[in-house]
Design brief:
Layout (H helix, E strand, L loop, with lengths): L11 H14 L12 H8 L3 H13 L3 E4 L3 E4 L2 H4 L3 H10 L5 H25 L2 H16 L5 H18 L4 H8 L1 H12 L4 H17 L3 H28 L3
Helix pairs in contact: 1-3, 2-3, 6-8, 6-11, 6-12, 7-8, 7-11, 8-9, 8-10, 10-12, 11-12
Length: about 240
Amino acid sequence: MDILKPLKAESLVEVFVSRFEELILTGKLAIGQRLPSERELALMLGVSRPVVHEGLVDLEAKGLVTMRPRVGTVVNDYRKEGSLAILNSIINFHKGALDESVLSGLLAVRELVESETARLAAVHRTQAQLEELEEIVQKERAADPKDVESVTRLDFAFHHTIAMCSGNIIYPLLINSFKTVYMNFTGMFFSDESMKPAIVGFHELIVDAVAAKDPERAASIMRDMLAHGELNLRRMLKQGEGRRP
């Protein structure tokens, strides 16, 4: 296989996984194609068998390959077999330039999940959770808009806490599963410093609705905020495409 070359890096497993992600996502390794044995891959790539095995296990966990006893490792159709773990791989591979269907799918899922977490938060939140939300918003107000990392981290904390307030243990886990993807795009969003005041304003309104135990208003404000975010994120992505050589 000429497309496989020796690996040299500090973390060979990560580089192994990254290379095979690229080969599979680009179609250079076809669906159903059987990979060489672990021993053969180790020799071809110039790494140890444990590196190969650990990398293949990671790829299998993401749904990119299936390791079959006495058969070998076979490339999957990741659209059918892939898990949420592969989303980060797709975004890192495309460096933010997502296929329109993937981007639209992500944004639609976010609206569906987060409007519901806001609605449930207004019903089930505790006083301690409400105070936690208020503290996050206070920190957001005080945060320097130039400190994109801090603003992004606080924004994620707000949304995750809303999910915690929902009373459904699955929602915060789901939000966490999107964290890397979320931080990627939210960081891009807050790179425009003018976005912070509007988002903090939305957060304040959501907290007011949650405090008043008004589930429909909380869900409505969340939808309005996400629509605002999508509009501006798409604008930024489009501008980014225009700057590419």
